[in-house]
Amino acid sequence: MNYKSRDFVFNPSDFRDAKFIDGATLDGDQLEKGDVIIAVDRLALTANTISYGIAGKTGLIRYLDSFPTSAPYARMPFWGFGDIIASAHDDLPVGERLYGFYPLSTFVLAKMDKVTAMKCADMSPARDTIPEFYREYARSFAEPGYHPDFDDMQSLLRPVISTSFLLEHYITRHDFYGARNIVITSASCKTALGFGHFLTQEHKDKCRAIGLTSARNKAFVEMTGCYDEVLTYDEIDQLPLDSSVVFDMAGNAQLRAAIHHHLGDLIAYTGTVGATHWEEGARDDADLPGPRPVFWSGPDEIAVLSKGDNSKNILTEIGGRTVGLMMEAANWLKVKKFDNEDAINAAYLDTLDGKMSAEEAVIFDIKQLAK
């Protein structure tokens, strides 16, 4: 049986130049050994998604090479669920449900290897450009406590909790750089909320989590309870004059400058993590007071976690850490689903333009596109 894919593509030189195109036709009867065809079920659009596009464009991490398409366009990676609908792998039957890194496409061909009871990995040559963590798929039915009713929240929170989890691991591994305050910009984004949640729940005796957000999002961020203190961007001059670490999720150079000019040498470390203010990043940080901001790399932290005796099933551990926050987030996130090409494209553009409110969470129902 043939499966004709529809692919969402965007132009890395102009993120607003985005559309659906006809993709590859995949023949389920002519698979090579180890191949599977996956029908993508649902994907979450978050600030992380846009960050993958930016990192891929700049070459920091070559996410955009993972799912080739015709120039000048690229396929942006998303996290979510899919189901195997054709298989030439003895250990991965039709019907297997997989959570992982997908393009926004109705159907995907994967060359699976490294299969265990809990996970497998797509060893397609195009994915050689990214760390192995991003090639791995969790076998959902094998995961403790898995239930499809929570797939939307898993799609939304598990990927951003991945980054939150890695940030927590990084800062504790460095003993908080000896700082008292952890300042987190774009505090309303889900990665920041997850990080703040871990800090306030697990490390309250070690640090204070301070979230910086826009005035319109302040009430929402305070309501989540993920931070010890929430300030707006206009209140940066109210940041406590105490030893601090800064994690910049916004990617806004002007905002970083304001923080550095206020705190100066009280800053022990500044890591740039994301780019929710994705059009505001171009500026030289060289002349800022305090330490020069550096790019914080999630894949580097994965490499640390995966070494030697510290090696662990990171996907499974993150899945476990997601559950607690997922239950809380259900009280303050409003899931919005989009299930046709025009609506998906409009939601993508609204996200780029910051038109989605902080409490709105976007799910793309991809299986509907294939009907």
Structural account:
It is a single chain. By secondary structure, this protein is α/β, with parallel strands linked by helices. It folds into two domains: 2-146 and 333-370, Medium-chain alcohol dehydrogenases, catalytic domain (Quinone Oxidoreductase, Chain A, domain 1, Alpha-Beta Complex); 159-301, Rossmann fold, CATH 3.40.50.720. The protein contains eight helices and 16 strands. The strands form three sheets. A six-stranded antiparallel barrel has the order 3-4-5-8-7-6. Strands 11-10-9-12-13-14 form a six-stranded parallel beta sheet, with helices on both faces. Helix 2 crosses helix 3 (190-202) and helix 2 crosses helix 7. The longest helix has 23 residues, at 151-173. The radius of gyration is 20 Å and the shape is globular.
Summarize the structure.
By secondary structure, this protein is an alpha/beta fold.
Structural class: alpha/beta
CATH superfamily of the largest domain, please? Medium-chain alcohol dehydrogenases, catalytic domain
Number of strands: 16
Strand order of the largest sheet: 3-4-5-8-7-6
Q: How many helices in DSSP terms?
A: 8
What would the CATH topology of the largest domain be?
Quinone Oxidoreductase, Chain A, domain 1
Mean pLDDT: 91
Shape annotation: globular
Runs in which pLDDT lies below 50 for 5 or more consecutive residues are 278-282
Oligomer: single chain
Helix content: 25-40%
Query: What separation lies between the terminal Cα atoms?
Result: 15 Å
Q: What is the architecture of the largest domain at the second tier of CATH? A: Alpha-Beta Complex
What's the gyration radius in Å? Answer: 20 Å
How much of the sequence is in beta strands?
25-35%
> CATH class of the largest domain, please?
Alpha Beta
* Number of domain modules: 2
Would you list the SSEs in sequence order as H and E?
Answer: EEEHEEEEEHEHEHEEHEEHHEHE
